[in-house]
Write a structure and sequence with these properties.
By secondary structure, the protein is α+β, with helices and mostly antiparallel strands. It folds into two domains: 2-83; 103-342, 2-Layer Sandwich (BirA Bifunctional Protein, domain 2). The protein contains eleven helices and ten strands. It has helices at residues 2-14, 20-31, 36-43, 49-83, 103-116, 131-134, 175-184, 225-240, 293-298, 315-323, 336-339, and strands at 121-122, 128-130, 154-156, 168-170, 189-198, 210-220, 246-253, 256-265, 282-291, 307-314. The strands form two sheets. A seven-stranded mixed β-sheet has the order 1-5-6-10-9-8-7, sandwiched between helices. Strands 2-4-3 form a three-stranded antiparallel β-sheet. Helix 5 crosses helix 10 (315-323). The chain is elongated, with a radius of gyration of 38 Å.
Amino acid sequence: MKERIAELRGEIEAFNIGGIEELELFRLNYLSKKGQVSVLFEGFRSVPPEAKRETGQLLNELKQFATDKYNEFRERLSMAETTGSTVDLTMPAFPFDEGTRHPISIVRNEIIDIFSRIGFTVSEGPEIEDDNHVFTMLNFAPDHPARDMQDTFYIEKKSGTESDPHDVLLRTHTSSVQVRVMENQQPPIRTISPGRVFRNEAVSARAHCIFHQVEGLYIAENVSFADLKQTLLYFATELFGEGVQIRLRPSFFPFTEPSAEMDINCNICGGKGCNVCKGTGWLEILGCGMVDPNVLEACGIDSCKYSGYAFGMGIERATMLKYGVNDLRLYFENDVRFLNQFRTEIL
């Protein structure tokens, strides 16, 4: 019996499997119910009792050796078939469309590119801010309505003491980034601050509690309102095309004096009036003005030597005008039918 086991082991080891037919022949010859290994197990009954322990161990090792040999060749043949196939079995069962940038990201990047061409750098800051950077250093009075809970999302109200002076809130504009730039850099300063901001407003076709802004700041010697106007005209022409019209209306902001709001002609209705422009044919796109001397002094900049202008715009509003979108709620709904319209955009 021992000699037959050794002989059979040699045959199994020398067996050459080149394809699926030889694999099946191997199974039938050695591992099937009528195979040679099974025949040896049937002959195990006639082995003398004193040799059964050793012989049984050899038989089990032989069966395991044959099984491992079979599995090894079967796996090798399976891998060879997969490698030679032109079908990638790891691919999804159905094709997926390529993604695209969100329209807000497209216009944000385009605005950054426009101002970068005339020397503006990009500055960023925290979305969770203190009211000193969001309000106080920007010349907001202590009782200004913008500080009220109706407009601002407060995270933590402080005691107002020297050790616990400033409330913590979600920034309502990216002007807080401009404050941080002026605190840490002396003029000339020429920077824009894109980012997400938060205000406690009712969601509608024209407003949302979360939106995106780009604010600009230029401080140097002898900066005038004419510099501001030419910069904004350049920006509007680059973003909306040569046919765009702008108008500046007097306004008020705590951090600029004089202040203005800039409108462009509504290309959604062609100036005829719609729900977006409230029937006026014009749509406010940004606020602007000359930086108030109080703001410069609060940030450690000599207002007698330097002057500057600032402006801020909502990216959602600019995107509405650029693409003719009549409801800014579409930007937040992740509707694939809406987003697929921007597939060809590369910015």
